[in-house]
Amino acid sequence: MNSLGLKSLILRKKYKSYKGEQGKIAPNILKRVFKANRPNQKWVTDITEFKVGNQKLYLSPILDLYNQVIISYD
Predict the structure, then answer these.
(1) 3-state secondary structure of 12
(2) 48-52 and 43-45: which strand pairing?
(3) How many Cα atoms are found within 13 Å in the side-chain-facing hemisphere of 72?
(4) Across the strands, what pairs with 70?
(5) Best exposed site among 22, 35, 39, 68 by fewest CB in 10 Å?
(6) Residue 36: predicted pLDDT
(7) CA distances in angstroms from 2 to 6, 8, 9, 10, 11, listed in the order given
(8) What residue spans of 10-58 are helical by DSSP H?
(9) Which residues pair with 48 in a beta bridge?
């Protein structure tokens, strides 16, 4: 190919994480009121991804909105 002056060109596809509507949207029960009047009334959670070396680690704490104490994590 070099003798004919031909070169290969590899185009990388751009990464797109958006895949449109996925699954069912949960109802907004809290309505952005992140305070609770008594313990165990409102619990919230979130998933955080960490990249450590060549692997991905996930942290998912459960938080009580009454006194902002972490109930559990995985």
Answers:
(1) coil
(2) unpaired
(3) 4
(4) 63
(5) 22
(6) 95
(7) 6, 10, 13, 16, 20
(8) none
(9) 59
Please tell me the distance from the alpha carbon of residue 40 to that of residue 24, in angstroms, as a whole number: 26
CA distances from 46 to 38, 43, 72 (A): 21, 11, 12
N residues, the chain? 74
Residues 6+ apart with CB under 8 A from 38: 66
Q: What is the pLDDT of residue 11?
A: 80
**Per-position pLDDT tens, the chain of length 74:** 677 887 877 888 887 777 777 788 889 999 999 999 999 999 999 999 999 889 999 999 999 999 999 999 99
Greatest alpha-carbon pair distance for the chain in Å reads 79
